[in-house]
Structure to design on (305 residues):
């Protein structure tokens, strides 16, 4: 199979993959997946002439369902769920496992929107099956955890649990978590070193994969590291405003650098968000660029102008 050019961290294979065996995991408890989605998925795949095994697990069985789907070694593994589930599927499949189609079924849908654009999952899947190409996708890795779009380390990650509570409509819990996040803002700075360079201090760090970066070129094999260091609440508010109206990376409190490895240190455990999902890291963390995390089914790149 011939290899084409890279496109935003994706190396394009110029032959359409043969797909006959399809496994599907649908998380009906996710942010935007309806109870009818499993039946809609079966009907769409049948319309396109594909037989499939669709797993829509009950709460708590999602990991087992993913494991069974990967172990079945299908030609294509379709994930209709949130970013965290897509990331877990990519970790399980690895660079030599099944090709994955990550469809938008969560709240943020960072990975699906980066790959397929902002479109309903039905249209994204139909387009990928009709014209898609296999693409090895690069990503980051932090202490054994992959991320395919972005990782945020530091105090901004403390707001993720509050967001999750809002999504679950547990408003009292969301309020308590918001108060806790606000109380801890600006309470502990991170220390870091990019590519073995000099150490620095920052309120937070963001690592963006080429899929999400606005400054990385198609041929770059690195992460975009954003050093976020507001000096006051007003600075932090300005970053938030820039995020709403333009690009938060242009804020004077933000510096961006390409990097392949980074070390991060803190006085305590480091709050983090990986592809929209909150995690807790140890007090030291190593961030690495990985050129091939998994394989995905994605539209072919647009021809060069």
């Amino acid at each position: 199979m011939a290899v084409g050019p890279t496109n935003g961290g994706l190396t394009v294979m110029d032959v359409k993959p043969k797909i006959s065996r399809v496994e599907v995991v649908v998380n009906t408890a996710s942010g935007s997946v309806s109870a009818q989605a499993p039946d809609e998925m079966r009907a769409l795949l049948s319309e396109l002439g594909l037989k499939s095994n669709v797993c829509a697990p009950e709460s708590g069985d999602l990991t087992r369902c993913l494991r069974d789907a990967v172990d079945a070694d299908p030609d294509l593994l379709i994930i209709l769920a949130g970013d965290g589930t897509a990331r877990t599927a990519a970790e399980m499949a690895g660079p030599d496992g099944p090709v994955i189609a990550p469809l938008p079924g969560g709240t943020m849908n960072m990975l699906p929107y980066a790959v397929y654009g902002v479109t309903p999952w039905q249209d994204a899947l139909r387009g990928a099956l009709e014209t898609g190409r296999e693409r090895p996708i690069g990503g980051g890795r932090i202490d054994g955890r992959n991320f395919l779009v972005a990782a945020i380390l530091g105090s901004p990650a403390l707001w993720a649990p509050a967001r999750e509570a809002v999504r679950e409509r547990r408003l009292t819990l969301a309020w308590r978590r918001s108060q806790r996040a606000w109380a801890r803002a600006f309470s502990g700075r991170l220390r870091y070193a990019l590519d073995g360079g000099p150490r620095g201090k920052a309120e937070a760090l963001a690592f963006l994969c080429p899929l999400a970066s606005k400054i990385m070129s198609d041929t770059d094999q690195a992460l975009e590291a954003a050093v976020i260091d507001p000096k006051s609440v007003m600075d932090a508010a300005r970053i938030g405003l820039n995020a709403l109206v333009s690009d938060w990376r242009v804020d004077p409190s933000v510096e961006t650098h390409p990097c392949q490895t980074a070390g991060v240190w803190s006085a305590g455990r480091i709050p983090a968000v990986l592809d929209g999902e909150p995690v807790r890291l140890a007090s030291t963390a190593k961030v690495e660029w990985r050129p091939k995390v998994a394989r995905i089914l994605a539209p072919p790149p647009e021809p060069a102008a």
Remarks:
- Confidence is low (pLDDT under 50) at residues 1-8, 159-163, 237-245.
